[in-house]
Amino acid sequence: MPVHGSRRCSSTARLLALTLTPACTHGGTIDVPVSNPVTVTLDANIATVLHLTWTTTTAVASTVSFGEGSAYDRVVTEPTATTTHAVSLTGLHADTDVHYQVDAAGTAEDQGDAVAHTGPLPRDLHAFTVSSPMTNANVGPYVLTSLLSFNAHTSTMVILDSAGAVVWYWRVTGDVESVRETQDGTGVAFIVEADGHHELSTFDLVSWDGVATEIPAPWAHHDLAEVSDGLWVVPVSDFQTIDGVAVAGDQLVEIDANGLGRVIWDAFGALTVEQNDGWTAGDLPGYADWTHANGLAYDPVADTLYASLYFPEELVKVERATGATDWILGGNEGQFAFRNSGAFGPQHAPELTSQGLRLFDNHNVDGSRAVELSLDESAMTATETWSWSPPTAVWTPVFGDVHRFDDGSALTGWGMTGGIRAVDASGGEAGEWQATTGDIVGQVSTVDGFE
């Protein structure tokens, strides 16, 4: 078992590759055999990930206890017995000593306390400064978001601890608006839009230990929702020529490791094509971005999808099995009557609640806001039950996100302004992080851990 407070092994811990001195002991009694040292390497792409490899003469499922400083507060256990071992330590701070021990099920390959060192963050890594500390205890232990450098068309997926420090990141060339943790908790998934060549978009999966899979997903964009283990739904642009204009309307399409698959829903078959701001949004003659789907939510109980359509200022509820459109909320085709507020939109990031949904209302006139609506699908009425905006009006036409916790507090992302803001249960500000100037914050979410 791990022994806390053991002495450090003599090692070249700060080198990229580290081989432990064989004289290290576990509890001062068992020597690590000279033929089986533990080797530590720093991940080539993530300075906060360490990879441990070693061999044992007996097939065992080893346990690695580790932590920053002398406390072993995290554990990784191998799923199966083997003689060739590979374990990754993740969720660490940069440029930090990491203590770890290998427990090889009581065999002679047990290894005492050792120290490795994470690397420094890349100098050009875009991250956050803490404008005010997060005092909302619901924010964390980690926050996941994407940072889009729009002019350079590069994106960074980043995980921050509750103090705003980077503990994991992944960088790509292209635009990433949303990054989602996978259902199995082993990593993240996102769509990379190639600037100017969305026909080259990809669906990317990256594990916490830095293993990346890139799957072609032509014309996929913005958001994604995992509907079962490894099966996702993404918006995909389809085109029809109407009055000489190439009109882009969205489909909702399933995708997995084999690529794009079944088309669930098609805007051209479900909605009426009407001119809106998408006809001039890109300043491209002969092209119209009609629906511009920018957010997805999924209800696993009812097996229904909810898609946010930016330029029509609508949300649609879709049956995943049949592709039927259950209803439309907002916009010109909306079927709900708003009881105590005006309509929303344009909008981003729908999220389901027990009574309806919440969304980020970009709301061009009075600044942006987070809003929650109770939906009565029998009476077809929508009632605003909660909203929040900063004391001084803030407007972002691009992106935006909101999550609300059980106590009524919230975590919000503010898109083009580069801000992440927490809200307490009474509506007061409870912390703010600010991204590097020029960076756009994608959707934000909390993450429990890396194991």
- Provide the CATH top-level class of the largest domain: Mainly Beta
Shape: globular
**Total beta-strand segments:** 38
Number of helices: 1
Structural class: mainly beta
The CATH homology group name of the largest domain: TolB, C-terminal domain
Strand order within the widest beta sheet: 11-36-35-34-33
Strand content: over 45%
What CATH architecture of the largest domain do you see? 6 Propeller
Describe this entry's structure for a reader.
Helices cover 1% and strands 49% of the residues. It folds into two domains: 101 residues, Immunoglobulins (Immunoglobulin-like, Sandwich), CATH 2.60.40; 320 residues, 6 Propeller (Neuraminidase). It has a five-stranded antiparallel β-sheet, with no helix packed on it. Strands 12, 13, 14, 37 and 38 form a five-stranded antiparallel β-sheet that branches. Strands 19, 20, 21, 22 and 23 form a five-stranded mixed β-sheet that branches. β2 and β3 form a beta hairpin. It is mostly beta strands.
Write the layout of secondary structure elements.
Elements: E1 17-19, E2 25-26, E3 30-31, E4 39-42, E5 50-60, E6 63-68, E7 74-77, E8 82-89, E9 97-103, E10 111-117, E11 128-132, E12 142-149, E13 154-161, E14 166-173, E15 179-181, E16 187-192, E17 202-207, E18 212-216, E19 225-228, E20 231-242, E21 245-256, E22 259-266, H1 267-270, E23 287-289, E24 293-299, E25 304-309, E26 314-319, E27 325-329, E28 337-338, E29 347-352, E30 356-361, E31 369-376, E32 381-388, E33 401-404, E34 410-413, E35 419-423, E36 429-435, E37 439-441, E38 445-447
Parallel strand pairs: 21-23, 28-32
Antiparallel strand pairs: 1-4, 2-3, 4-5, 5-8, 6-7, 6-9, 9-10, 11-36, 12-13, 12-37, 12-38, 13-14, 15-16, 16-17, 17-18, 19-20, 20-21, 21-22, 24-25, 25-26, 26-27, 29-30, 30-31, 31-32, 33-34, 34-35, 35-36
